[in-house]
């Protein structure tokens, strides 16, 4: 357990976070496995998310942190795609579960227009971004702006990928989270670690959340627990891509993916 800079607040929780249409889904627990009902919150923006995680020692965030420049492709994105394929019973299409992080220049130069974003993306990458990418551009820039403003947030906030986290627990890539088989397999996988999973209740603030948003945030707890062990106990960094030297972006943010 650690304390913040003022030493007046214990940071005894771990957290998993997933972005949703109108905000962020936050799950919190003291340990993994967690015998208690995990706390689940809805944060309207990143500022609220930071406030809600003041008591968290490790926060796994399903969002790119550390942005490439121009035609650069992040090493962690390449390695994550390769790992998804190697863990999948049906490698064809497995890599598409992780999109290549757009260049910083496209994320900040579009003026709020999808067409301009795609134009910039083609300028730097030679092709447009997948359609789902535009939908989370505001979340990427929101997280990036927060970490650039306060780089010490990197001590606790780190990027993870839910598909890889689930694959690590299962030993293979699961069926798509967008169909019933994939949802049930994720519930089945999480239940031994979160025996009170079905006791979680959500209020009306979660109206924009989907079941896969909640499941992705919950599996982030497993990665956050590992991140905390690595940092405090010098455990092997065998669930980080790249496993050795981590590149920094032009703002000094780490370009890495944990799982």
Provide the residue-averaged pLDDT: 93
First-to-last CA distance: 22 Å
Please state how the strands of the largest beta sheet are arranged side by side.
Answer: 5-4-3-6-7
Strand content: 5-15%
User: H/E series, N to C?
Assistant: EEEEEHEHHHHEHHHEE
Weakly predicted, low-confidence segments: 1-8
Mind describing the biggest β-sheet?
5 strands, mixed
Radius of gyration, CA atoms, in whole angstroms = 18 Å
| SS elements, strand count | 9
Class derived from helix and strand content: alpha/beta
Q: What proportion of the residues is helical, as a percent range?
A: 25-40%
Shape: globular
Description of the molecule:
- With 259 residues, the protein is α/β, with parallel strands linked by helices.
- It is built from 8 helices and 9 strands.
- The protein has helices at residues 46-52, 75-87, 104-108, 114-125, 131-149, 162-170, 180-190, 211-233, and strands at 2-3, 10-11, 13-20, 23-29, 39-43, 56-62, 157-159, 240-241, 257-258.
- The strands form 3 sheets. A 5-stranded mixed β-sheet has the order 5-4-3-6-7.
- Strand 3 and strand 4 form a beta hairpin.
- Helix 6 packs across helix 8 (211-233) and helix 7 runs parallel beside helix 8.
- It starts with a strand and ends with a strand.
